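Support case: magnesium ion complex. Customer-provided input:
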Amino acid sequence: MAGALIGEAFISASIQVLCERITSPEFIDLFRQKKLDQPLLMKLKMTLFTLYVVLNDAEKKQIENPAVREWLDELKHAVFDAEDLLDEIKYEALRCKLEGKDQTHKLTNKVWNFLPKFHNHFYQSMNVKIQELLERLEDFVQLKTALGLREDVGRKVSQRTPTTSLVHEPCVYGRDEDKDYLSKVLLSDDASNDDVSVISLVGMGGVGKTTLARMLYNDHKVKEHFTLKAWACVSEDYDAIRVTKTLLESVTSKPCNMTDLNLLQVELREQLKGRKFLFVLDDLWNEKYSDWKCLQTPFTSGARGSKVIVTTRNQSIASFMQNVPFHLLKPLSHEDCWLLLAKHAFGNENYSAYQNLEEIGKQIARKCNGLPLAAQTLGGVLRCKKDSEVWNRVLNSSIWELPYEKSDILPALGLSYHYLPATLKRCFVYCSIFPKDYEFNIEDVVFLWMGEGIIPEAENGERMEEVAKEYFDELLSRSLFQKSGKS
Ligand SMILES: Nc1ncnc2c1ncn2[C@@H]1O[C@H](COP(=O)(O)OP(=O)(O)OP(=O)(O)O)[C@@H](O)[C@H]1O
Ligand SMILES: [Mg+2]
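Agent response - structure generated as follows:
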């Protein structure tokens, strides 16, 4: 099983999937009918969780401790067996349901009387199997203590500093075309209906969405065009009151102590009445359409031509936010990445005096694959270091080897992974079996996922292949997969 090669991230996601399944309405329904032993299943869930919290620690310790390595390996098998057992229960429950419907029409009373006994027997044997699995997992729990594995639920999701509208980039590279196109859209007043135009900037973490939004917000023509402007950093913990309050305080330039959303919205609507405004809602993660509808209610009182710029990594959010096509931010060219890296590495010093470093630097820039965040981080690592040996070391090491705490890259990109549902996490982690920079086809990935058994059956009878394709699209839409140049 390829999953066995992938490691802790895959088991973590598998355990999450298992826990979700145990508490799914389908299983809860089986408890209600008293077919499965509910306390036993809950115990199974708690035991899985007890193991889940030490997986990070185990992953670190396995390098030096072969016993931990073996523990992890065996645990993988137990988790896969647990998955098979739940599959078996699910399949049987489904079969009973279908047969039940069918048999009521066809079976004589005699045979019909026999069926419940057969099913009860099945569930009893399942209860025995769950008990056995539980005992097997409890052995892992005992061993974890003996091996000294400790709770480590992993890196906390970083609390990112809120973004602001003030430009802090020494220079912005490679975005002139995007800027020209988008400022034209911003300056046009031809909204086709009464809704405020929403322009969504979409792209993977660190590609420069906020930077571009900031450029537009501070452009002098744009400044002149709008009567009111406001910037709100929305971020992961969406809070309608906080965002509305920020917008209101910006347009009135006064602090506001209202805490009631209704009062805030009424006041904001009053302030916007008949005035042309530009709002930036930076870094949207919330996927609830109704929340967005509620947030934008006061916006409709603004004058025609008012605009909202939204930045997000998720195309699905963009598609319900926007009423003009969203703007996909492409990675920078290698040349722009190099200029950006050099700016951070050399500051205002002219790098042409360091030809040997320029050669190595250009190769390092290629490794950034057009991601400005990576170019900036590596430029920062090389800042004031004029020794070609140091530059070569960076060239020959992986970006991922930078200490987590010192790099902005992993925390920024890790966020996209953190917010994935567990089933999608497994599919994503599975792709780590591909070599770096590998270009894969949707069909190949879909078949591999299906072969690996990591695509759950759809409740609505949709074919597994369709579900897998939807997962692929979802990862693409969340900017975790990138379309290759050829597709
Ligand atoms: N075109 C560019 N030229 C120079 N620096 C850039 C450019 N684009 C981005 N940067 C720098 O790269 C870093 C990441 O950019 P930014 O914060 O705009 O990315 P993002 O797409 O908004 O990421 P996230 O999805 O995490 O919000 C920033 O520090 C920014 O200064
Ligand atoms: Mg951003």
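Residues 1-5 have pLDDT under 50 and may be disordered.

Case will auto-close in a few days if no follow-up is received.
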